[in-house]
Amino acid sequence: MISTLRLSLLIGPVVATPAPASVVDAFTGAQVTVTAGQRSGFQLTFALSRRSPLSTSMIPGGYFDPGIRVILVVTVNGVPTPVIDGLITRQEVGVSDGIGQSVLTVTGEDVSVAMDLVKWKNIWMPPVPAFARVATIIGFYGVLGMVPFPVPELFPSLPAVASPGEPVQGTHLEYVNKLAKDNGYVFYVEPGPKPGMNIAYWGPEVRIGMPQPALQVGADARSNVSSLNFSFDGLQRTNWFAFVQEPITKIPIPIPVPGIDPLRPPLAARPATALRFAALDDSAKDGVPAAIAKALARASESSDAVTGQGQLDVARYGRVLKARALVGVRGAGTAYDGLYYVKSVTHSIKRGEYTQSFTLARNGLIPITPTVVP
């Protein structure tokens, strides 16, 4: 259970500073969505009146303009947790004759949106491994507190030394995401560990580590989850195979690839059966390492046949549930208890209320461990 919970709001161009009292007093709510493998988004709402500082000076002066940086920090029992660090992309004002009905809404995305603003064409990267190219690109955005954390590829593929390298087509974000997809990796920006800092992670989707405190259902007063529903999709999992060219005859040879990833071990004792079979498009021209990497990525993506959706009250749970991490489930029965990967979390924050909606995922039924973290 939470004894103290405090929300801090920082706003400003490039370097965000604590919001003035007039902004804090007008704040009515926030919604932040964090999803594995995707950009995080946020939406903040503020009460407006004709004579409030927000209407008379801040909005006209550009305080909430697109491009302004926003950092939202939740402090639970003295421990600060940055929930979002992003840039405003949209501003909306709803004006009403009713007292207290006028609203300012600002919408935005995490700081990686800055990587998606400039289209490049034929900007050549040096002939180095993909993870080094990613680190170089992320370094351009250090002013936003982005710290590169690239993981070397499992199957590196280098451009020829004599070549000028590889051209960047599109935005930096599109190029980094392309490199991630080619290697079966993900790219995302995680705020923290301190406000103003951001870890730019490029690497495999890691599903190992210390689980978060368990989600308890069906235990009356001891339950810490408002609702939790599970589904088992028999058509989700797919058997993938790649084609590689035989070097002499150039005949494409199919190679089945098992969905085995050391950083993404199975979370269920009875994995779902793969009912679908599919081949990678144009994998023969990629070479064996690249083709295997892509096939492994597709197999991992399709392995989450069991999903759970629920909602919790942070005050009852006792901490902030984080996406892109493991969590245990208790009280759902033999088939659905055990460890899950938290695919997404939506934070809904209002005065006196903090709830989270979440999505869980794993590869099948029945837990692999007899107990989960309390």
TrEMBL record:
Keyword vocabulary terms for this entry: Signal
Keyword Signal (UniProt): yes
Signal sequence, renumbered to the chain: 1-21
Name of the protein: Phage protein D
Organism encoding this protein: Pseudonocardia broussonetiae
